């Protein structure tokens, strides 16, 4: 009988030792493998409707060089408790841009006349810090023109309207703090407040003015279609906070104690 009890005790000790070795091995493995791999959080919002309007005369065409910057809201900042922020990627896609422009003779010379008003524009995301005016995902509209031809009996006047589908890039990434953005603007509580959607007109100019005294042009460029607005994406790439090795060992100890208690019962 004593040999049987002794055999049982030896068997129990052997099983306990095996279990202890197994659980300990798992704990050690988890502790060493707890070095966190990269993780990603992606936020996407629809950009608000934005437009820019300007008017100018042939003697001061620079007045048509206008900018409109609309803040992008609804994108949360990165929660620093999740880990270390490694890089931020930005994207701007879609959106139908409407372009309206006109040219009108202000004073008539009473003779046949003509004029051309041309301008360039771009749309994109703007990053105000550390260098304000950093344009990302820029899409250009080059050499848009509106022309007018007038006779003796009526002034020169014409109107132009069109739709433009911007092509935007989606791979702008800052992988170094202070590269062209300040990471501090993107970490914390609340929403990001430094990203803007820019509609920027450039190089407004009059040309081929024939028998023209004063001519005025105005233009309006903007996203108006609520069903086809541009989409802004911000992606946070980060290294999560690793689970400490002590946590794995503590959890393994609890499992072992529970198993031993169950065996004893």
Characterize the biggest β-sheet.
4 strands, antiparallel
Low-confidence stretches: none
Give the percentage of residues in beta strands: over 45%
Shape: rod-shaped
**How many beta-strand segments?**
12
Query: What is the CA-atom radius of gyration, in angstroms?
Result: 33 Å
Number of helical regions: 2
Q: Let me know the average pLDDT.
A: 75
Q: Based on helices, strands and strand pairing, what is the structural class? A: alpha+beta
Calculate the terminal CA-CA distance, rounded to whole Å: 22 Å
Describe the 3D structure.
It is a single chain. The protein has helices at 2-32, 245-264, and strands at 39-46, 51-57, 67-71, 83-93, 97-107, 113-127, 134-150, 157-164, 172-174, 196-210, 214-223, 231-240. The chain folds into 2 domains: 1-35 and 242-265; 38-241. The chain is of the alpha+beta class and 265 residues long. The chain starts with a helix and ends with a helix. Helix 1 (2-32) packs antiparallel against helix 2 (245-264).
Task: List the SSEs and their pairings.
Elements lengths: L1 H31 L6 E8 L4 E7 L9 E5 L11 E11 L3 E11 L5 E15 L6 E17 L6 E8 L7 E3 L21 E15 L3 E10 L7 E10 L4 H20 L1
Antiparallel strand pairs: 1-12, 2-11, 3-10, 4-9, 4-12, 5-8, 5-11, 6-7, 6-10
Helix pairs in contact: 1-2
